[in-house]
Give the backbone structure.
Amino acid sequence: MRVAVVVRSLKIGGMERVAVNLSEAFADAGHESHLIYFKDKKRAFTPKESVHFHHFNLDRLLNLTLIGALLAVIAKFLNGILRNSYFIYSGLLLAPIFSYKLKKLEKKYGKFDLIIMRGHGTFELIWPFRDERVVQMVESVFIRHGSWLDRLYIKCVYGGKNLAGVSSGVKERILEVLEATQVKAKFVEVVHNPIDVMLVREKAEAYTPKMDEPYILSVGRITPNKNIPFLIESYKYAKEQLHLAMPLVIVGSGHALQNVEAKIKELDLEEDVRLLGLLENPYPWIKNASLLTSTSKAEGFGMVLVEALACHTKVLSTKSLGGVKDIMVGELEEYMVDFSIEEFAKKMVEVVSQTQAFDFDKYTDPFLPNSIVQKYRELYVK
């Protein structure tokens, strides 16, 4: 089978990392795998050599012609008049270029059996491109559809397309939005994200964190949705009321970082909370943590939880919307807590004190690459 995974960029991020993992999963399963990306800025990931790697610089190709450059300027001008309408013009301009580049690629390698596009940022750029071999993987439960422009977006991007959510929660959200906007997709399925457990464990041995004592960890982009101030307040309660002695380590960066720094200062936790910023390889920190926490309000899937389980690290999550419930099954359900500062604090202290053995592998097996590749084949390849 010949498959192409298409993603907008390869900057540091969960969705981008999964695109690489997926392309490698197909290659490892013996298929001809291609990874196509559009934007090279801040690229942090490169797939292994068994994956054919292609940069489709759509913007550059558009600007190579005078008419293309002029149309791009007009599109940005129109977006200034009607905010958030840029996807309309960019799709009309860039989809033909993508189609041209894809045909050239297929002329060299042969036709693809399956084309997997990952994330709204990817398929909104080329939304007029239609092909029965394409499946659009929706990564998030945050899908706007309130305004007429949002509804037009849903019609353009989802209408008549093969859609799949990365979790049952995302699928539920897609179906809600389709019903509310009266848009019909071709069909909607669920295909989880794959995790290369052995690779995660290998990266987890790359270095030893400079930390002499046990610690609690948070890993992810620092945005309002990640709800890090809630974690810090829970940590404060656990430290002062429940005698938690270990520090809190936060890995990540984002536009809500200043709010997090302010919260740490407000609660007088500068000596107890360590901000590491963005790390290209956070896995040694995950492996050596006493507990990995996730306090998100919503998660498309919750890959960092699976990665922690792969590292045999205990996890604790809020009952967020989306995909966490697909991971936290069986005995892991008791490690999901309501959005209560006190309850989350109590559970943190309880979990780091537990000493019983835990079958981590049982919870990563459903997300192993071969299982996910087989799921794609069963659903989409005739």
Summary: The chain has a mean pLDDT of 93.
